Amino acid sequence: MNAPIMLVDDEIDILKSLKRTLRLQHYEVVYTDDPRQALGLIQEHKPHVLITDFRMPNMNGQELIQEVKKHDPSIECIVLSGQADYDDMKSLINANNTFKFLSKPWNNEELYTTIEAALTNHHKNELKTQILRNNNAPLVEVNTIGNVIDCNYAYTELVLNEVNKGNFFQLFNFESDKCLDDFTERRIATLKSSGVLCQVELKLKTESSYLLIIKPLSSEQDKYPNFYQSKLGFLEHINRTDNSVMICLKIRDLLVKNIISNTPIYSDTFKKIIDHALLSEATHFSMLEISFDQAIFWLDSVQSEIEVHKFLDELINSIKQFFIRKNIQIKFSVSYTMIEPEQPLSEAIDSLVIYTQFVCESRTDFYMRYSQSLLSEKLNEHKVSEALFNAVDNDEFYLRFQPKLNLNEHSINSCEVLIRWKNTQFGANSPDYFIPLAEKDGQIVKIGTWVLEQACIALCEWQKEELEIQKVAVNVSPYQLSDPCFVQTMYSIIERYSLKPEQFELEITENFVLENLEQAKTKLLQLKEIGFSIAIDDFGTGYSSLGYISKLPVDVIKIDKSLIENIDSSKSARDLVQNVIRLVHDLELKVVAEGIETVEQLEILEQLKCDEVQGYLIGKPVLLEEFTHYVY
Fold this sequence. Notes:
alpha/beta, 6-stranded antiparallel β-sheet, 24 helices, about 25% strand
């Protein structure tokens, strides 16, 4: 049976009310209206909590608590009173005899909460006493400012030759901050006079005190027994089995977050994490620090990937708690690999680190299992990206020109320029592959400038040959639009070739416009004012809403081939395209349909009053010298 709660109050009605209130919550209660009888009842029933009135005849609450504490210092005392002198309350508080004051009439929820907290504190104090009595390691109990409350013999022996024994923080120098409120992890400290290196760990925390265990260390390796900074040392000491697993964990953007938060914790970060990690003792692991924000973890033997995920859950939760106390929110990139027999471990580490970098770039929050095929693909992308840096200078790009048929005039008087790339190492590459890479790594601005300049050269050639090419459509990347110099660069290039902006149609993807509406509107308005024609490309692949079109300075809507491909076999597809064309015309804009491959599609689009079409039926993308065949 649990120890009862002792109630003392000279008012019988209040005493009965308190008894009923507590028994509703299944507390055992012992009570009396005479504080002099309370001492005998306490010795008999040994309650953990005493709730007493303050103003009582013969013996007040303060005097009762003082007598009770003489016989049982561990009992938690709660004063429940309608009135009490300030000096009396101050005396109780200063004597550290009272757990909490509650006023009459009491709030039941507050009363229950206070009792539970008092019971918890009593349990912690009992546990603290047991630990102090039964542990051979140096143990010390201190209050919030570091004054020593209690200690065991081993601690006394440790600090025997030290001065200022009364205050814990005057005895030790700490490697990191020493705020006890943040003392929920192990710390490294040095005894000031003797220079003994120690590990200090919070063993138990109560309402007013901290129980710390002190472990003297003989060397740096004792501080972090499974921690390695040398790959060679790591590989020499790990235990390789048939079920070994290697994990790479990277903390994203840690340096930036440290600078922003002005918290210089990036030095030895993983040392602190490992020292703090609340991991299962059954899981043996070693760690190799790759950098201040990245480490390799080695699990000797696991039975399944579920065990790997459990280890990572515990590790990451521990790391998060470490940083939350620094007011830093962090995210991770994690990859792991099951070690194959005879696999060279040094190469495995390098591959996993590279793989984790790609995981970091993708910003995924999953634990990614290592994939050699995916790594090869990413490495190939990296090589392609490197080759793109010099592609313009090496004259590896070239243009193809796809004609557009004007359905009103039944003539070809415009075209779209399409970039192609042929590299000696990688051969021909599709724009769908290399353009996203160029955008990601920033080469697209230089490539886009080259495309516009080549389009200008083509127009100048056609003018010399007196070809009636009224307009050339050029695709513009969102990253070009984001360039502050983009508008001026465009105008400078066409001016250099004595051409007019009206001869160019700039195609912008629908998704970019919608995702960056205000930015796109400002930049497109500048281009429009100069004289460029603006087209929304790939209409039908994104939100496909014409509501935003009226708010933008655009001239042309290009219907994506995905909307066109079934208009000759599906009435609903045909009706959809018809409605789009009608609505676009209502906005006084021009409609271009792309991806035309059959005569039936062409005839239907002509019936639906589409303005221009392009596709393999009209003409494939061809080189500059071949394009004249379409015009003649």
